[in-house]
Amino acid sequence: MAEQKYWLMKSEPEVFSIDDLAGKPKKTGGWDGVRNYQARNFMKAMKLGDRAFFYHSSCEPPGIAGIVEIARLAYPDPTQFDGKSEYFEPRATKDKPVWFQVDVKLVEKLPRLLSLDELRGMPALSGMVLLKRGSRLSIQPVTPTEWDAILRCFRK
Hints:
The chain is of the alpha+beta class and 156 residues long. It contains four helices and six strands, in the order βαβαβββαβα.
């Protein structure tokens, strides 16, 4: 059996928030609109049951709002085929899609937002991709050590 991996998935709350996900049927929704090749490749590497931190970005304050689980493996993002979508991709065809998405299921909305400033103050996270200068990826790997350190903030 494949080892579970951990991720951090960023979304602007005005576009898609943890509360939006909580309001969907079965608390499950597609993570669409990713338009970065490395982030796309991370989604293609995800396995069912992998866990991810749901991170609210481009807001004040940014931070981790909850935990989601990968509920459906990567499949073509339908927004790339919609000429009216801001995520339309003219190069994409049904036979050769360019962009992919996964479905995520809400596991838990955290009791409070764990802010970016708080994350920066945790020595165990000094190597975390999120905290590296210039890291803007919307989907990032998280090590088991980083995952556990963040969970300890809420499991005291």
